Amino acid sequence: MSISTETLIARKEIMKGRVLHVTLDTVSINGGERTATREAVWHHGACAVLPIRDDGKIIFVRQYRYATGVAMLEIPAGKIERDGEAPELCAARELEEEAGVTGEITPLGFIYTSPGFCNEKLYLYVAQNLKKGSQHLDDDEFLNIEVYTPQEVETMIERNEIVDAKTLAAFAKARKYLTFR
């Protein structure tokens, strides 16, 4: 069977929260040839920033992630605060909030985090020419800042020590900005 299109027939609201919205949708496939049920998660989107210091080292944050039950090494990131917020403003805000730095932000593109069931679009950036800013975490946010060379990052990826998808994608997309020695 070739690629199909799907059109919404009916929607049942399952949950509407601060971060995401969950629906159970009935869709028609290929103009009504068939119908199917889709569970979908709707999200405003997010941004992630790979901050590169002047010495070529990358700034990471390590924070506990409840859903996985582990503290993960990631690049600074956060959700777009409201529908329509410019992704580059979100990226700049999260860079300073989490890493305590500001800088020149360059877009790397975007990824869909889990397109099988979620529409979250995550915009990726690289930040350079960093300047000290003011770290100001959310009340429920606790993290450690860690700094690594690109070579150390590659080793941690090979060892499965960095398993966060946005971090892996940003690192891959930012290769031309990185200095490997």
TrEMBL record:
Any one GO MF annotation of this record: hydrolase activity
Any one annotated GO CC term: cytosol
The Nudix hydrolase domain, residue ranges: 42-170
InterPro entries hit by this protein: NUDIX_hydrolase-like_dom_sf, NUDIX_hydrolase_dom
Keywords: Hydrolase
Gene Ontology biological process terms from the UniProt entry: nucleoside phosphate metabolic process; ribose phosphate metabolic process
Reported cofactor(s): Mg(2+)
PANTHER family for the chain: NUDIX HYDROLASE DOMAIN-CONTAINING PROTEIN (PTHR11839:SF18), UDP/ADP-SUGAR PYROPHOSPHATASE (PTHR11839)
Name of the protein described by the UniProt record: NUDIX domain protein
Organism: Megasphaera vaginalis
Lineage: Bacteria, Bacillati, Bacillota, Negativicutes, Veillonellales
